[in-house]
Design goal:
- Chain A: Keywords: 4Fe-4S, Amino-acid biosynthesis, Branched-chain amino acid biosynthesis, Iron, Iron-sulfur, Leucine biosynthesis, Lyase, Metal-binding.
- Chain A: Heterodimer of LeuC and LeuD.
- Chain A: Its EC number is 4.2.1.33.
- The complex is a heterodimer.
- Chain A is an alpha/beta fold.
- Chain A folds into two domains: about 260 residues, Aconitase, domain 3 (2-Layer Sandwich); about 160 residues, 2-Layer Sandwich (Aconitase, domain 3), CATH 3.30.499.
- Chain A has a five-stranded parallel β-sheet with strand order 4-3-2-5-6, with helices on both faces. In chain A, strands 16-15-14-17-18 form a five-stranded parallel β-sheet.
- In chain A, helix 2 packs across helix 5, helix 11 runs parallel beside helix 14 and helix 11 runs antiparallel to helix 15.
- The radius of gyration of chain A is 21 Å and the shape is globular.
- In chain B, a hairpin with a 4-residue loop joins strand 6 and strand 7.
- Chain B has a single domain, classed as Aconitase, domain 4.
- By secondary structure, chain B is an alpha/beta fold.
- Chains A and B meet through helix 2 and helix 5 of A and helix 5, helix 6 and helix 7 of B.
Chain lengths: ~450, ~170
């Protein structure tokens, strides 16, 4: 048997062929997701390729979420929500409601993703599932609508670029900082059509919520997928979060002599918190370079960094303090369950008392639709994944990307602040085991 | 399949993104023929008026970067373009074009083709022929599976056949 990457193994398994990078396959898709923006088009395609109202054998593998414009911010959005609801009621697909959360977080929490699976979504951040050791990738509405009908889709088996981080990460450096660094190093198209595989001792030590960040932003370097080899941490996570009893196949890993297109290696202790300057995620710099930049709005949330642990970091920084005058802090939990955990643990209370605007679960202002879009000349620091011109509102606004710790520190001082400069005691709180930061 | 009738080459440069193929102010349209009226609107305003059925688009590196929307390949199909030859394609354009049944060829020597040359795409042989100069340029043939998809007219007709819902006419 040829030595294979984990990507080649998953696509071989799902296509029933022994394939390596460059091959074209038709592969069986384990689950698929679409949302209130791309869903109506996928339904149109499905209805076009199928005769008339008929059984949908894949219904149990199809998930609909309402997240981009939820609660509906206009009549068109409201109508789109109803299109999905009606289809789900008719065919028995899984329908999640407004405030249930962002598609990718819902898929993970609700147990639709397991290691070794092939999962597609009509959303570019479907790469997120690689944090659990699945092959997740974003597809178009034609792809998704036909896959509703057939349960399979064509793929080109991608080459893999490996990012290896050894050793320990310094305090204040999170997965978000790693991925911004990687994107800065390879460029926004540096992994086009390829899998970004994240490995090394520092990556293995990352808790799952941080591995998801690495996989999520693979698309920001053009990646078709991002993946971390699954291990017992994934088993524990799925048991706790999704009540799934999964045992990871030890062979679900890249072979030692697998072929990589390139390998980038890092020493964990050399890394610093990163910020990507406007208006491309590849503009990553050490936070030192931008410390002191005045910020009008801090946005914490999204499928990248809207999980409980992320919001908790911000709450720990702001506990008993106030958001800086002249700066707005907007927090949008990634799911209802994240929202509830913030409520139960007092994180919500802490943030609201500190002056944050805490909103219902969903995508928030990430794509510039609602819940805090930016005006002309507004400068924002976001825990989001993209900062293209106009992404969060006005073409004349600016967005910096950073970790939740950097966001919290920035909200406190109203200017970009190095989270390593916070008071030791406060900082000590938010790097507790509870938050899952690797020391 | 061989596109064997020679047709005029419309030659473009490198990094032609989807906004240049179909300016984003027209993406509210979804009918291929309506979209075709605006193809290359800003880059070559005469294109949509003068392009004829059976002609070709030729480009340099990274054709079709940018949006994942299907409007760009749709507008070329609507214009009656028989295929696109480029030195390389952006991933999402490549996928969308195949899914919509628009033939593509990756041809490292595409830059040798001059605007207005008469060319053919020989998909089976993996070659582009320039009838103006008599030259033959090697091109990567599409893998058999993708060729089948394109021949059937794209992913929707292909799926219909698989499902047995294709119209029996």
């Amino acid at each position: 048997m040829t030595a294979k990457t984990i990507t080649e193994k998953i696509l071989s398994e799902k296509s029933g062929r022994d394939v390596t990078a460059g091959a074209y396959v038709e592969a069986i898709v384990d689950s698929m997701v679409t949302h209130d923006v791309t869903g109506p088009l996928a339904i149109e395609v499905f209805e076009d390729v199928t005769d008339e109202k008929s059984e949908l054998p894949t219904a149990d593998d199809i998930v609909f979420t309402l997240d981009h414009h939820a609660p509906a911010d206009g009549v068109e959005a409201a109508n789109n929500h109803n299109i999905l609801r009606e289809f789900a009621a008719e065919y028995g697909t899984h329908q999640y409601e407004i405030n249930d959360g962002i598609c990718h977080q819902v898929m993970i929490e609700e147990g639709f993703v397991e290691p070794g699976q092939l999962v597609i979504g009509a959303d570019s951040h479907s790469t997120t599932y690689g944090g659990l050791g699945a092959f997740g990738t974003g597809v178009g509405s034609t792809d998704l609508g036909t896959t509703f009908a057939t349960g399979e889709l064509w793929f080109r088996v991608p080459e893999t670029i490996r990012f290896e981080v050894q050793g320990d990460l310094p305090d204040g450096v999170y997965a978000k900082d790693l991925i911004l660094k990687f994107i800065g190093d390879v460029g926004f198209d540096g992994a086009t059509y390829k899998t970004a595989e994240y490995a090394g001792s520092a990556i293995r030590e990352l808790p799952i919520h941080q591995r998801l960040v690495l996989a999520n932003m693979a698309i920001e370097m053009g990646g078709k997928a991002g993946i971390v080899e699954p291990d017992e941490r994934v088993e524990t996570f799925l048991e706790d979060q999704a009540t799934l009893d999964v045992s990871v196949d030890p062979d679900l890993a890249s072979d030692d002599d697998a072929t990589y297109e390139a390998t980038y290696t890092y020493e964990g202790s050399d890394l610093a918190p990163q910020v990507s300057k406007p208006s491309n995620p590849e503009n990553a710099v050490d936070v030192d370079d931008v410390v002191g930049t005045g910020i009008d709005q801090v946005f914490v949330g999204t499928c990248t960094n809207g999980r409980y642990e992320d919001i908790r970091v911000v709450a720990d920084v702001l506990a008993g303090e106030q958001v800086a005058p002249g700066t707005r802090l907007i927090v949008v939990p990634a799911s209802k369950s994240v929202y509830e955990k913030c409520l139960e643990t007092g994180v919500l209370e802490t943030l609201v008392e500190a002056g944050a605007t805490f909103q219902s679960a969903g995508c928030g202002a990430c794509a510039g639709y609602h819940q805090g879009v930016l005006g002309d000349d507004d400068v924002c620091l976001a825990t989001a994944n993209r900062n293209f011109p106009g992404r969060e509102g006005s073409m004349d606004s600016q967005v910096y990307l950073g970790s939740p710790a950097t966001a919290g520190a920035t909200a406190l001082y109203g200017e970009i602040t190095d989270p390593r400069d916070l008071e030791t005691t406060r900082y000590g709180d938010h790097v507790s085991a509870d938050v899952g930061v690797v020391r | 399949m061989t596109v064997d009738e020679p047709g005029r080459a419309w030659v473009f440069g490198d990094d032609i993104d989807t906004d240049q193929i179909t300016p984003s102010r027209f993406i509210v349209l979804s009918d291929p023929e309506e979209l075709a009226e605006h193809a290359f609107n800003d880059l070559r305003p005469e294109f949509s008026e003068k392009v004829r059925e059976g002609e070709f688009v030729v480009a340099g590196e990274n054709f079709g970067g940018g949006s994942s929307r299907e409007h760009a390949p749709l507008s070329l199909l609507g214009a009656g373009v028989d295929g696109v030859v480029a030195q390389s394609f952006a991933r999402i354009f490549f996928r969308n074009a195949i899914n919509l049944g628009l033939p593509l060829m990756i041809c490292p020597e595409a830059h040798r083709i001059e605007d207005g040359d008469e060319i053919t795409m020989d998909l089976d042989a993996g070659a582009v022929r320039n009838h103006e100069t008599g030259e033959r340029y090697d091109a990567e043939p599409l893998p058999e599976f993708l060729q089948e998809l394109v021949d059937e007219g794209g992913l929707k007709p292909y799926t219909k056949r698989k499902l047995g819902t294709a119209e029996q006419s």
